[in-house]
Amino acid sequence: MSEIRVEFLSKRYGETTALDGVSLTFPEGSFTALLGPSGCGKTTMLRLIAGFEAPSEGRVLFGKMLVADPTRQLPPEARNVGVVFQSYALWPHMDVAENVAYPLKARHVSSADIPARVAAVLDIVGLRGFEKRRIDELSGGQRQRVALARCLIAEARIILFDEPLANLDMHLRSSMVDAFREVHRRTGATIVYVTHDQAEALALADRVAVMSKGQLLQAATPQEIYRSP
Ligand code: ADP
Ligand code: ADP
């Protein structure tokens, strides 16, 4: 179910072709970096997978299930996809536990089960014991970990990252790289990770999909990319 496949996927905004006939499979449990310069269509690809936009042409499948083509789209909340953006969008007046548990509110999860689930995802992101801390007491890296934990608590089998390190300094970036690897190891989720930073893509991902001007140039392992001229 959590294999993602895009077929001949295109997206136009008026005169702009943001995505131009991309076909690519993201195997179940894989960690793929979408790499390319600003404006090449990476975020558009994520938005089409998440269901925030409809394709102009082509289709998106999760396993054998068609989730989007130009005529029909499964709504985002029915896709069980987690998304983490570079802006964390946390609630400043709530503590860490309240922020992390927020997605469970709409899901009829018994309140007796919530503390254990919060503790489990805080453990994955390295913030065990931070439940009662206020968001404005946290560093940028810690806030990004809270956003990551909030995404994880819904147990999505597909997790999309849109340049999550863009606002962090070099030192924090390397510690977050470890946190993302840990999330992948512990959840086994299918991860698509957007970045314009080649070093970041090669450090994190099992597969790197290189994009340019709305098209897919190459999809390969980091090892294959190091070897290619
Ligand atoms: P990337 O994430 O690689 O920086 P995007 O997917 O954000 O690229 O954008 C691809 C192209 O589509 C760019 O030329 C961008 O200006 C254009 N674009 C993206 N979203 C919109 C939109 N909502 N309306 C018009 N043009 C858009
Ligand atoms: P196993 O690999 O042992 O079958 P699961 O894959 O079901 O186990 O998950 C192991 C643990 O990780 C469970 O406690 C589950 O709730 C949790 N988990 C699984 N997927 C996610 C996810 N995407 N985000 C957060 N936690 C997850």
From TrEMBL:
<keyword id="KW-0547">Nucleotide-binding</keyword>
<comment type="similarity">
    <text>Belongs to the ABC transporter superfamily.</text>
</comment>
<keyword id="KW-0813">Transport</keyword>
<feature type="domain" description="ABC transporter">
    <location>
        <begin position="4"/>
        <end position="229"/>
    </location>
</feature>
<dbReference type="GO" id="GO:0005524">
    <property type="term" value="F:ATP binding"/>
</dbReference>
<keyword id="KW-0067">ATP-binding</keyword>
<protein>
    <submittedName>
        <fullName>ABC transporter ATP-binding protein</fullName>
    </submittedName>
</protein>
